[in-house]
Amino acid sequence: MDEDLIVVTGASGRVGRRLAVRLAAEGARQRLVVRSPDRAPDVPGAEVAVSPGYVDIAATRAAFAGARTVFLVSGREAAGRVDEHRAAVDAAVDAGVERVVYLSFQGAAPDATFTFARDHWATEEHLRASGLRFTFLRDCLYHDAVARFVGADGVMRGPAADGRLAAVSHDDVADVATAVLLDERAEAHDGQAYDVTGPEAYSLTEAAAVLSEATGRAITYEPETREEAFASRAGYDAEPWEVEGWVTSYAAIATGELATVSPTVPRLTGRPAQSLRDWLDLDPDAWAHLLT
Questions:
Q1: 208 lies in some domain
Q2: Where is the NAD(P)-binding domain (predicted)?
Q3: pTM (two decimals)
């Protein structure tokens, strides 16, 4: 086993790619797991492993082989995502991995309002039972997701009522993951579940005002009931489980399940977390679609 080798799954994604760059900057040895080799980040010294999905047990086991630590990104949203996650955990056990840092979700629980948060809870439970050392990074919704709530007409619609959310940036999550993965006192993070949030909780009405200021166009928030939310999305070309996930992400804001602000980012990275305004300044490409 190579105790210094870190496997980064989802390395072509928005968190995984950022993490790979940060690990390379720190001189860490890493193996990047991607679905296609042409999607792997171009970072110095990194190995690349290809797995078409976690349910391909042989490919996933081979991608994990020889490594002590795996950073496990959740699979694509799908009806069978929990099965994929369980397959990945089982592959890690089979490959002799000792430690998994799992990117989970704030409020993960069997009765979470947000249906996808229930998937994360089920994955956490499988990890707890696996015998592996684990750390859960439970991030809130991303600032990026809030920006993508805005429709073509400049309106955010959903059953969030006047609830608040402590949204976070992809950069902050990647920085926290880097800190946890490279900490010489790795055992201090064993068995921990860290909420990873921004520095403040804001309502969608407040978010709309900030986005309006940044874009120079009128962006508003229009509350819906759950029934109205399902009805307004009935014409989308989406599976029922997917629509339920969209609607319940807003509903979780309404219930306050995403409102708690955590000190994880400043405590583990030594700098403040990015606010919505910070994120708008630092990542303009992520919300450029709102300008058209």
A1: no
A2: 10-183
A3: 0.95
Condensed to tens digits (0 to 9), the pLDDT of residues 47-65 reads 999 998 898 999 999 999 9
Neighbour order of strands in the sheet with 2-8: 47-50, 29-34, 2-8, 67-72, 99-105, 133-139, 192-196
Q: Which residues pair with 221 in a beta bridge?
A: 156
Q: Count Cβ atoms below 10 Å from residue 229 Cβ, excluding itself.
A: 21
Quickly list H helices, 106-203: 115-130, 143-148, 170-182
Between CA 172 and CA 195 the distance in angstroms is: 12
In a domain, 269, yes or no: no
Give the whole-angstrom CA distance, residue 162 versus residue 10: 34
Number of domains in the chain: 1
Phi, psi of 179 (to 5 degrees): -60, -45
Query: Residue 199: which residues within 8 A CB-CB, separation 6 or more?
Result: 261, 265, 272, 273, 274, 275
